[in-house]
Amino acid sequence: MESELTALMENHTWDVVPLPPHRKPIGCKWVYKIKFKSDGSIERYKARLVAKGFTQREGFDYHETFSPVAKEVTVRSFLFIATIRNWSLHQMDVHNAILHGDLDEEIYIDLP
Q1: What dihedral do alpha carbons 74, 77, 78, 80 form, nearest 10°?
Q2: What pLDDT band is residue 99 in, cutting at 50, 70 and 90?
Q3: Distance between CA atoms of 26 and 111, rounded to whole angstroms?
Q4: How far apart are CA 4 and CA 11, in angstroms?
Q5: Which of 21, 50, 70, 89 is the most exposed place for a label (fewest CB within 10 A)?
Q6: Nearest to 4 by CA among 92, 96, 102, 109
Q7: Which residues are CB-neighbours of 73 under 8 A, at least 6 positions away?
Q8: Higher local confidence (pLDDT), 35 or 67
Q9: How far is CA 13 from CA 6, 69, 73, in A?
Q10: Where are the domains of the chain?
Q11: 30 Rama class: left (phi>0) / alpha (psi -120 to 50) / beta
């Protein structure tokens, strides 16, 4: 939880402001997961703060949704091209990728 909160604060994910009249904040909750190694032992504990977005109303709280996801055929094609062209490949994990987007709307959320 500490690393998640630290990342949220370092990325200036939110500003604490008074709630304007006639606005209802979105709730949030902590989601916990245990990640296991292949032998069944515990690798690490994970915690994510998630917004309860199901309470939002289209046209009032948001106008469109977008979730960039690469299709498997695209990834396979890229790997094929990289292989035949002898490109070097590297893997990386992006933590808190959702924090790198910009919102056009003002969204109010309860503090965790």
Answers
A1: 160
A2: low
A3: 10
A4: 11
A5: 21
A6: 96
A7: none
A8: 35
A9: 10, 22, 33
A10: 2-100
A11: beta
